Amino acid sequence: MIIDESDRGGKSPRATYTATPSGELKPWIKETLDRLSSSRKAAVERFLRYLEARQLSPATAKCYIQAIRTMGFDGKPYEELTSDDLIAWQRGLPSSRIAMGNGGKLSDRTVDAYKGFVRSFLRWVHNGTRLEADLPECLGAIQRHRPKMELRKEILSPEEVRQIVDTCDNQRDRALIAVGYESGARAGEILSLRIRDVEPDRYGAIVMVNGKTGERRIRLVQSVPDLQLWLNIHPLKQDREATLWPSRWIKTRPITVMHFHRLLVKYAKMAGLSKHVHPHLLRHSRATHLANVLTEAQMREFFGWTKGSDMPEVYVHLSGRDVDRTLLRHYGIAIEEERPPSEALKPVRCPRCGFENPASFEYCGRCSMLLRVKPSAELPEYHRGAEEAVALFVREVLREDPELAKSILQRSGIASMLAELNAEGGGEKSRA
Q: What is the domain range of residue 250?
């Protein structure tokens, strides 16, 4: 499918099944159709036209194709499949190699989703657009078992997200993972961003994503330093229409969701994490963390859920927000002030130039100043010796040429810094 992005004036763009105006099929559609037997190919082509007429999103149509692929490319026409055939298909579905493309095992949630897509497809095969018609008897063999959400043990903490970011070996990947977590956006929404979709402001930046529920704005703060550093070295930074996350091999194309997945797995392993990390886990983790901060209406707006979606309730449940507070009040236990948010991803402001640096930086990305100065008691012996030598030098300059020393202090800005430190020290003494 292709999305016409020439006009992003608020309405969701129109989806088509061709990659170019000349009518060339999208690769993932063409590859599937080319491998199907003639009878199965004809059915899938008709189904794709049906989906297009219903104006389903590109992501939904692709999910249908991925599910249909698990039934194989050859064999009986779809309308001749029996209950026994569908039972055998379900038995082999969890370890389906065709769907994953890499020999991996499908998750329980994916298996259940694929069963739903296949049942809808086969119902269309038998009944067409007659939605009121009875369900074909053979489809009763498809049994769905919605798995319980066990996200809590897999949720990434802000500290773990920082561990992953810190293992990245290039700035593009640092920025991608940092933005992916803070934005809480779907992988497809993040990877489809262009440079023009990023608007820096005095508080950080706004990114405009286009997803299932249309276009929406997302506020970024903590990931902005990494994003700015990436934009400064982006290979096509002069082109506002360029993809924000270009492939290393073809700069005009964004990296794929599968490649994003591989990057996360690689960096999580390097960081020593044993959790099953994938792009959507960044969204799950962010939603769980923000469930303690945003109202359910605000969460629907931030994460791009429809007004009737029950997803906010899922994450409020995971966070335990409402239950904890209600029980504590019931037992007459005073609720302490909210814990401050984790500072693991908080940018570090340079005391010299004011530049906002990524949380893990030791030196300023603009002026190279050391960002975190340890107390002298924590420094190695040779560092303390260096401090004493510098202090001795300063005292000698002040004694030999006070005017020169005063001039240096004024020009370098050290005088104003000392004045601020003195004022802070005086304030602390008065409070004491």
A: 158-330
Which band of pLDDT confidence, cut at 50, 70 and 90, is reported for residue 340? low
If asked whether residues 9 and 133 sit together in one domain, one would say yes
Rounded to two decimals, what is the model's pTM? 0.63
Asked whether the beta carbons of 231 and 198 are under 8 A apart, the reply is yes
Indicate the number of domains in the chain: 3
Q: Which of 274-288, 368-382, 407-421 has the lowest mean pLDDT?
A: 368-382
Which CATH number covers residue 203? 1.10.443.10
Q: What is the DSSP letter of 271?
A: T
Tokens 């504590």, located at residue: 328
